[in-house]
Amino acid sequence: MDSIKSVDKAKKQSIKVAIFDPLKRKTKPHRHHNYLEVVVLFKAKGTHYIDQIAYQVDRPIAFNIRKDQVHYWDLGPAPEGIVILIKDDFLTDCEDPVIKSLLQQLSPFPCLIPNEVEVLKSLCPIIIHAFQTTSNRHVREGLLKAFLAALHQYSNVAQSKSTGVNALCNQFLKLLWRKKVLGIKVVDYATRLNTTPQNLTQLCKKETGRSAAEIIAAEITSEAIRLLFYSENNIAEISHLLGFKDVSHFIKFFKRAKGMTPNQFRRNP
């Protein structure tokens, strides 16, 4: 049984924009099954943990928490910032391809350090007010696009290799992040995307600097760590959940990635 607490308060809204709630400056580990969460903090001190990786918060900073990633906050008093919760429904209904492209380019980065925050800060009250007072999608999407474009520009995402601009590569990443077991081999995803393993590997290498196999391995390792930390599933059950047909194969895979067996990692992470 998975003991991770799930938080899905945005069920009835395809997108929600609000100030960062100071009451949530300290939280327990939890995951969001249904949406991407974008958080920009302008004033805060402390630590943010995503999949057991600690990010020091001591300057203006942005976070992208993908669906099913486990995270929690340990911040000091009076943090200030903005939270944007985005469900798949919003992206399906959104008619602006630029918004979709910006989110695809930003989402691979769990942490971003903006080198300029005044534009982002000035946009915050405007976009929050708009989402609270109007249902006009053109107004909402226009302001959201401006905010995401500023975050993209001032965080130098455009200069990174991991821009995710290729459509096929994006589809591959979306399939992988859905956490529905498709397989652990490149061919499993290539078949689903109507391409060849060689083509998918070349595109991923060009767009992200990593091969498709490396991306799959990293995602499987991250999910394995989440399950080892936050679930009561035994190793055989975790192996099955991750798509391994043989538990010994999973143990070898994990030891290659982390230098120890899953049981050793669970006892002494």
TrEMBL record:
Question: What's the protein called, per UniProt?
Answer: AraC family transcriptional regulator
Source organism (scientific name): Putridiphycobacter roseus
Pfam family of this protein, just one? HTH_18
PANTHER family referenced in this protein's UniProt entry, alphabetically = ARAC-FAMILY TRANSCRIPTIONAL REGULATOR, TRANSCRIPTIONAL REGULATORY PROTEIN
Keywords, in A-Z order: DNA-binding, Transcription, Transcription regulation
Q: Which InterPro entries match?
A: Homeodomain-like_sf, HTH_AraC, Tscrpt_reg_AraC-type_HTH
Coiled-coil-forming residues are none
GO terms for molecular function, please? DNA-binding transcription factor activity; sequence-specific DNA binding
HTH araC/xylS-type domain residues are: 170-268
Q: Which SMART domains match?
A: HTH_ARAC (SM00342)
* Domain of life from the UniProt record: Bacteria
